[in-house]
Amino acid sequence: MGWYRRFINVLRPNRVSADIRREMEFHMAERADDLVAGGMGEAEARHEARRRFGNPSMQHERTRDTDVLTWLESLGADVRYALRALRASPGFAVVAIVSLGLGVGANTAIFSLINAVVLRTLPVERPEELMQVTMGGKERGSVFTNPIWEQVRDRQDAFSGAFAYGDAEFNLTSGGEVRQAAGSWVSGDYFSTLGVRPAIGRLLTHADDVRGCPPVAVLGYGFWQSEYGGSPAIVGKTISLNRQPHTVAGVADPSFFGVDVGASIQVYVPLCLRPGLDLRSNWYLNIVGRRRPGLTPQQITQRLAAIAPAVYQETIPQHWGAREQAAYLKNGLSAVPAANGLSSVRRQYQRALMVLMAVVGLVLLVACANVANLLLARAAVRSREMAIRLAIGAARRRIVRQLLTESVLLAGLGALAGIVFARWGTSLLIGLLSRGAFPVSLDVGLDVRVLSFTLGVALLTGVLFGLAPAWRATRVDPQVALRASGRGVAEGHSRFTIGKALVIGQLALSLVLVIGAGLLLGTFRKLVSLDPGFKRDGVLIVGVNLRNAGYDEGRYGAVQRDLLERFRALPGVQAAAASVMTPISGSSWNDFVRVDGYTPKRFEDALVYFNQVSDGFFAAMGTPLLAGRDFDARDRLGSQPVAIVNETVVRKFFNGASPLGKYYRLADHDRLGAPVQIIGVVKDAKYRELREETLPTAYLTMSQDSASGPYANYELRTAGPPSGVATSVKAMVADVNRSIALELTPLSEQVDASLARERLLATLSGFFGGLSLLLATIGLYGTLSYSVARRRNEIGVRIALGAGQDRVMRLVLGEVARMIVIGVTVGIVAALFSTRVMASFLYGLSASDPATLIASAAALAMVGLAAGVLPAWRAARVDPIAALRDE
Amino acid sequence: MSRQRNDILQGTLVLLVLKTLSTQGRMHGYAITAHIQRASADLLRVEEGSLYPALHRMEQDGWLRAEWGMTEKNRQARFYTLTPAGKKQLSTEQESWARLTEGVTRVLRYA
């Protein structure tokens, strides 16, 4: 019961305090009475009574401590006191809270992203039971064909339920500019295995996924809201997907976004509606199962491995060569945990996010050092206050706790500010992520994990930056502090070593961050400014799909040639060409070739990348033709097949000699293709991504291809900005045929999208590097100003004894220079160790790039010296008479 | 500097207070001090200030009950009485004190 009475007393601390005081006063009065009765004078008796009682305030505090839940009651007092102390110096409070808020906010923002992308489990029933089927081994794939899926589905005994799904893009419009919806082909047990419930209507079931099924669709909740305003009347209506009417069966639960983290699925369509279900080399399905209760992951893998030989035997692609078929049969089946879902965003960004987490961790450390420094200066100013409290009997422990309360309170306020910054920062981050090839949608709401992370960080920082000042406070000797009134003629340098150490630490950490930012910015700049072999600005890519426009397949080539002529005639278009592939689009087409006189060391060495283009392609793209000729009217169906190659092909296959007039053949397994004559050489151009070593590339001509597909891309070189011709392009195509589907992308945007990760890293590391530099500068400035203020007497004496202003300035700036030199040295050593983890993100410079190191160190030194100039100038202007009179 | 220390042995203060209240009934703090001093013929002296933390702790533990009242001299004082729990505690403390003194005595005699 004791704690209960104490708790009650917590709620009435003043009453408890008054009672104790009254009781003690009574005691002393009685004692004095007795002493007077014994013959002592009244005043002397009162004094003696007090002396015998001992230290009344200490006994008072001890008594009160037994009456209340001390820590709780005094916590309240501490918090009230700390708030009052903060209100008393608002400038300090604002700087501290904002720098902590930025630090905590940055950490929370990055952490909520990591949480959403890596840590959070799927919002489905018992996600920990989900496993993804893979081929086993390390680098083996996890994408399967539909025949394999059907075999696995029918043979497996490891899962209580299993499903397959594949990415799909559905065109929502019936013609004109394409509007894509992110979709998923899903097998019948998709929703039932995951345990997802419908928001309205029904979800797809086993019965929806049978051969020849009627076209139905389930909508994602977000898509239903944005596209149909959340109207329940949509159930039973039809929507157009790739120009086919689909009946809407229902809408999925609001929290469900699919199995891929980062991509929000808008439309789910039964797998049975996909064309080409029986193709045995069409790989697009992910397979996921729910672990049968009682089976361990190892047993699951064993059971899958057991059925693998039969599965592959039944699904062997008949048209493959013998070697490939043998390799195909060796594939295995295995399972890995999939509680967090699958994610291409995760694959692409996990390591980048970890690097950013480390970066913001360092920023937080710098911010902590800053606040610790401010608190130290304050503690020094308040040493008299502390001394007095110690002298009148406050326990040392109590003062340390009081100071720690202040710092944890600061940290708490900083964390609140941080949550605000973080909300704003995460949406900014997702915006940056979404500048990639596809929009990224992530649930980054504050959940328990993020909040406890922030809380933990705040507490940790509070203790971290509160410890040094509190430790110093305990070392105050009340007598010295009171007698010296906190000021001496010559302030020893040692007085402020913690502060200096903190500033040096800040400088070193900031340098690491600035160097890291410099490297990432350098990488980004190199990638943006490198010559990709084509001119990226002023080109509009027009993707055209004739499939649903009602043409016979044999007519595709003619329609495409006609469109090209019409594009060339458009005003504002300087040149136009067509191609199958567009640069830096992420897709590729390659084949093995054989060239007489070239023996590949490894069989991959004979791999060449291909594109099929119209005449004028190189002119439109701005890729110089170095030798030979472009395609022209001589290259027709039936004439000698010709190709144009890039410089890499010349170097690799022809040893640098002119290849004009020479031949290569496709080497498809053991069969050789017809000889193709090389008629031209073009400059090297990037094919898949900017970072790659240029690939050996051969360009074929569309005019020698009898079987044109329904897809073609056109490159329009425009006089003005590419988007300027968009309207006339759309109008012209609609004029030809309203049902032709169109996609317009400026080439520069397509190239930019491939740099999304580099841009993210460069932008954020640059921002955080600058932020930590700013914080370190504030720290340096604050420490110096404080040290100059404390050394005012000493400086006054120096000036009185004849030291000139320049000498005094040198004195102060020398201190700055010493701190900077140590900070830079430590920082460079630390950077050399730590930037290595970023090596895989860098392009065109090494992790210890000397230019970046030197430039960063110079920038830091300059900013640091600039921060020191004002305090130094102030020191030089000290009026010796005023300074000494103050004494 | 050597000083005659006849301050009460740490831990025995509780025993002395419980015993005092059990024989004397209702008392305030000052009277308890005075009684201990008198009963021990001035051999024991309570450090007056330290009595109050002890009294309050015993009150929180439920061994004492406290109430405000008037003294003969018409002063307000806080009077303490022993509770049943306090009586039980007194016998435990007496027992352990007896064991302690016996042990100490034996050591002094034979060691």
Summarize this structure as a short list of keywords or feature phrases:
heterodimer, A: 887 residues, alpha+beta, eleven-stranded mixed sheet, 27 helices, elongated, B: 111 residues, globular
Give structural notes.
The complex is a heterodimer of chains A (887) and B (111). Chain A contains 27 helices and 24 strands. In chain A, strands 1, 2, 3, 5, 6, 7, 8, 9, 10, 11 and 12 form an eleven-stranded mixed beta sheet that branches. Chain A has a six-stranded mixed beta barrel with strand order 15-16-22-18-21-19. Chain A has a five-stranded mixed beta sheet with strand order 4-24-13-23-14. In chain A, strand 8 and strand 9 (244-252) form a beta hairpin. In chain A, helix 5 (70-88) crosses helix 14 (396-433). Chain A is elongated and about 135 Å long. With 111 residues, chain B is α+β, with helices and mostly antiparallel strands. Chain B has a three-stranded antiparallel beta sheet. Chain B has one domain (12-110): Orthogonal Bundle (Arc Repressor Mutant, subunit A). The model of chain B is unreliable at 1-6 (pLDDT under 50). Chain B has helices spanning 12-24, 29-39, 51-60, 84-110, and strands at 27-28, 64-70, 76-82. The longest helix of chain B is centred in the last third of the chain and has 27 residues, at 84-110.
What is the compact description of this entry?
With about 900 residues, chain A is α+β, with helices and mostly antiparallel strands. Chain A contains 27 helices and 24 strands. Helices cover about 50% and strands about 15% of the residues of chain A.
Task: Tell me which CATH architecture of chain B applies here.
Answer: Orthogonal Bundle
Strand content of chain B: 5-15%
State the low-pLDDT regions of chain A, or none: 485-494
Determine the mean pLDDT of chain A: 85
Largest sheet of chain B: 3 strands, antiparallel
Radius of gyration of chain B: 15 Å
Structural class of chain A: alpha+beta
In total, the number of strands of chain B is 3
Our Rg estimate of chain A from Cα atoms comes to 38 Å
Read across the widest sheet of chain B, the strand sequence of neighbours is 1-3-2
For the record, what is the CATH homologous superfamily label of chain B?
Answer: Winged helix-like DNA-binding domain superfamily/Winged helix DNA-binding domain
Give the helix/strand class of chain B. alpha+beta
Strand content of chain A: 15-25%
